[in-house]
Structure prediction request, 377 residues.
Amino acid sequence: MANGLRFKVGDVHISISSTIPEVVEHFEVLYCSYELVDESDFIDFYIQILAPSFFRRFIRPQVNFSFDGFSPFKPLPYSQAAAMFEWGLNWCITTHSHQYLMIHSSVVEKNGEILILPGASGKGKSTLCAALVCSGWRLYSDEMTLISIENGKIFAVPRPISLKNQSLNIIQNFSNDIIFGSTITNTAKGDIAFMKVPEQSLEGVVDDAIPSKIIFPFYKGQSVTHFQTVSKGTAFMQMIENSFNYNALGKTGFEVLSKIIENCDCFNLSYDSLEEAVSGINRLGKK
Amino acid sequence: MSKISLVDSVIFRLLGDECVTYLGNSGDTHLLDSISAAIINEVKENPLSKDVLFNILSESFESDDETEINLCLDRYILELSSLGILNTEN
Prediction:
C-alpha cells in the first residue's frame, strides 16, 4: 500500500497510501472485497496515513492523516491509525460532496425501499444499523445519507460499520457471521472496532430504490421497544439538525429535503432489544 | 386597507397540517403550525385583506368568539411578519 491502493466505495474513488501495519491489516480484513479502480480513473480523494518521524517512533508515537498533501487534523496515537483513516475519510466526503444533501445517519435498503436512521453519535443508530445488516438489509452507509441534489436519488457508500464499547459485544452476540477488524482502544470515542460490510451490500446496489421511512433511533436500556409516529414537519427539522450541509445548499437543500420527507413515514424508535427493534422495523412493512 | 402577502423570497411546503418555510433572504427554516400553514396557503398567490382572511379562516379556530379570533389572527400575522414570512402592505 506504500504506492497507493486505488479502490471505490459506491461512486467515490479513493487512493490510500500507508506503510503502517495496522492500516494494511485494516484493509486486508475489511476492504478485501471492494472493487479496485484503474490507474487512468479519476480519484476523488488521495489519502495518506503517515508514520511518525524517526524520533517520534520511540516516544509516544503518533500518526498523521494527509489529504491531497494537506494535514487537516492533529496527529493521533499510532495505535489509532486505522480509525484515523475512517474518520478522515468521513471528513473528506462531508466537506467535499456538496452535490449531495448529506445527513448524519445510517442508511439501509431492502426490496427497493430505503430506511434512513438519523442521529447523533451515541443514539444507537450504528448498532441498530449493524443488526439490520445482519438481518438481510443492504448497507448503504453507516455514517451518512447522500441525497443527490440533481434527482433526489440516494447514493450508497457502504463502508465498515463503526461500533464502540458495549455495542461490540451486543453485535457479536447478535450474529455469528460477523467479521470485525482489530479493536482500537482508548480513542476519543472509547474502544471501537469496525465491522466488515457483507459482500451482498457491495454487489448490485438497487438503482431505483426510494426512501420510504425515516426512523430516529434511541437506545434506552431496560425500555420496551416503542415506535411513535413523528409529524413530517418535526422530522424535517430533525433532519436539518442532523445535516452536514443543509445550510450551505440553501434553497436547494430545502427542496431536496422536502421531497424526501413527503415520501417517507417518520417514527421515533426507543429500544433496548435489537431483536425486537429489527422485528418491529420489518413489521412496519412495505409502503 | 392593508393587504397581507407572502414575501417573495419565501418558499414553503405543506406537510400534513403543518408547514415548513425557507426564507431566501436569511436562509432560515421554520416549522409552523396549522393556522400559520393555512394563512400562508391562502396568501401564496394573491395578497388578501385581513377581513378576507378572517372570513376564510374563522372556521379553523376553535373559538366562536369573533373578537378572540381577530386577536388571534392579529397575533399570527404579526408573528409571521416579524419572522419575515409575510408582508403587511398598505
Observations:
- Chain B touches chain A at residues 11, 13, 15-16, 18-20, 22, 24, 27, 29, 31-32 (CB under 8 Å).
- The mean pLDDT of chain B is 92.
- The first strand of chain B starts at residue 3 and ends at 6.
- Chain B has one domain: 3-89.
